[in-house]
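Milestone M4 deliverable, item 7.
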Amino acid sequence: MKIIFILTILLGFSQCGSNKFVKNPSFKIEKATYNKWSGGQPGVSGVKLELQLVNALQIEFDSLYFQKKITKVETRKINNMLQIIGHFSTSNRKNKDLILDANPIKELKNTPLVVHNFPFDLKENEAILSFKKNNKTHYYKIKEVKQTQPSFFPSTKQK
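Output delivered:
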């Protein structure tokens, strides 16, 4: 009896890791694209990831994981499709509020850098879409996100 109990527990825990990703979600991805953009102001740039989904209107989508970055999604209903957009900043602008001083007490006012541990090992063109169904978070791996032409925005005049 103890052996059966131990085997049941071991098999139960071994199944937890394999259920990390949903294999066949109720929605279908019609289109998955991303493009890099830059402009507006010097050093400002990012990546915009767009998904077109069908059979997804009743699902609560949460986040996108892409190129070692995480963002909350923006959703739009277009006819019978759902468009999901993720905006990822790649800006290299310096923080103007950074205090550098010989006196370390003055540097205590600096806000600490937030480091996120990226939970997934993804290729350059793969993304993870998280969503909630029955109050449980699920993850779907999107392979082959196509890169489109970069967008360049004109600089704005300084006032």
